[in-house]
Predict the structure.
Amino acid sequence: MPLQVLLIEDNPGDVRLTQEAFRDSNISISLHVATDGVEAMEFLRREGVYIDAPRPDLVLLDLNLPKMDGRQVLTRIKEDDGLKTIPVVILTTSDAEVDILTSYKLQANCYLSKPVQLDAFENLVKSISDFWFTKVKLPPRGHSTKPPNEIPVVRK
Amino acid sequence: MVTSGIRDITTHKDTEQDLAQSEAKYRGLLEAAPDAMVVVNQDGEIILLNIRAEDQFGYPRDELLGQKLTTIIPEGFAERLIADGLRTAAEALAQQIGTGIELSGRRRNGSYFPIEMMLSPLESAGGILVTAAIRDITTRKNAERHLAQTEAKYRGLLEAAPDAMVVVNQAGDIVLLNIRAEEQFGYKRDELLGQKVTTIIPEGFAERLIADGLRSAAEALAQQIGTGIEIYGRRRDGSDFPIEIMLSPLESVEGILVTAAIRDITTRKNAERYLAQTEAKYRGLLEAAPDAMVVVNQGGEIVLLNIRAEEQFGYKRDELLGQKVTTIIPEGFAERLIADGLRTAAEALAQQIGTGIELYGRRSNGSEFPIEIMLSPLDSAEGILVTAAIRDLTTRKTAEAHARELSRSNEELEQFAYIASHDLQEPLRMVTSYTQLLSKRYKGKLDTDADAFIAFAVDGASRMQRLIQDLLAYSHVGTKGIDLLDVSSEDALHRALANLHDAIETSGALVTHDPIPVVLADETQLVQLFQNLIGNAVKYHGREIPAVHVSAVRNGGGRWMFSVRDNGLGIDPQYFEKIFGMFQRLHRRDEFAGTGIGLAICKKIVERHGGKISVASEPGHGSTFRFSLAGGSAKS
């Protein structure tokens, strides 16, 4: 079963760019998109139309979102015993210190800022798949309620 | 005197007839005399008397003729007349001749009255007779007694006076003085009586007392009466001391005397001098003060002010002196100065001391301006005064308003910077990314025009990207507070080199440095400074491989002068100033990419650190950029 990735991003340009980059990286993933925080939480909690949504193995989260912004989404995920074990990667245009610090305080698993140049962005997406989808040992599926282990374990 | 006439007559020695004749003549003279005249023989019997003698003693002539003189002059006359064993009556008499003897006369009614008697001898056939001229001196005696009483009373007053009192006659001799005068001048009374007043008051007194040719002593004196004259007194030991004298006239039997009340004003003079000195000193301080200074009394009236106060409030000194302080400080000052029922003025004042109070001042033209006043108490002879230092806050208030405005605009700028970093970059990133994606996927698949258009779009978007990033960096230097700490400039340099890693590697540049010091700087900005300068040096290279050298030398005052030297293209001296300006570029875009902001950022960073940046260069021979920074507090 391919890795399930939830991209929470309101900008269709970025969504498409991310999709293109993942497609170029030749890794088999299933990329789901939520375009605001409320929708993202519904997806994660399998509410409404998302009743059959898969549990993501990784969340890519933009900070500036309509309705419920990325910080609130991050807070809800990390407060939820059923969700807190899902690694959350912040992927945003902001490189403001305050955003970086806040994200880590809210237990983000890592913080990446989107590069301007296309090739740099493609490289970044490649790095994400290379690291999170091949090197990192993710928490076992179906053991979502066990105590969180948010520190990624690097495969030898 | 009548007796002298008698004596002339006595020179005649004649017969009985002569005597009879002379008696008739003598009687005529006798009766004409103004005094009572009695002629007595050697036995003390009255043998002749005139009508004034009858009147004076109250006897008819016949009752007295042949009577002993002791009937009318009970004592003193006979004793003098009759010689004791040692001398003749003539000798005894001779001693008395011409001398007024005061005795008592007795009237027929037994009453006594004071008399003065002058005796003279009268030789006659019956031996030496004695003529006595007798004057009733009742009136004179009464007058004398009265005078003595007056003098006693006057002396009492003199001694009771708090000041030294000296009475001087018209010749300038001291005729009377009190014990205070003795003490003050250090003399005993007897040493001064009869002395010239100049002995104790060397100058000024006599001149005033004694008239010059143009006016009488009385006039001269009149001018002085009641006037306190300050002159010097001299003690017995020769030392001088300041005195004030008050002259007043004293009519006496000896003519007009001058009473001088002399006060030792040494203490007062010292106090005055001290006060004058203190005031002079205080005024000096007052005028030297950088603020307007106003001294106010308990009544809220301005008693002193300095020139700054005149300037600040637009009044002349005289216009403010004596005016209520509310004239220039309409509210707040008086309320603080004057105590309410619950506390004393001193307490009210104490609460204000040392506290800056912000009030409004009012100028003579009615305009108001913000002031800060500081009150302090000033002990003076008139009680506690209040010194108010008044500072015009107009400039400070304006500056504060400016600072607020600046701070607000800085916040807005930072807000703008954030918006630029995020909201502006977001769409730009889309343009950049998708033109690049277009280029990547479709280059060579469309026609050549499409390729060219896509290339222009990609280039434009990229340049706009850099421009926004550089502008952001520039605004960050200005809006972010700088945090000056001890920073190793060597570490900052290494961080800058790490950031420039790609450019250095690509160009093959060789960057070297001497040991460089710890400086007082904002580390992020210092990194940016090195990065921009070295980045330029690497970028604007000639045919040679870029070589950059960084060094620092002491620049005096604990400062360092840094140099970043390269072997690049160099800069024409006419552009030395221009290159530090915003958007100033010296190269075509197809030669070197750039926004023209890098050196403007450098200049801003150095200036924000209190230093200066400059360039020395010759085209074709490289450039050296120099900038100064304060050394760190720790030893490097």
Summary: The two ends of chain B are 127 Å apart (CA to CA).
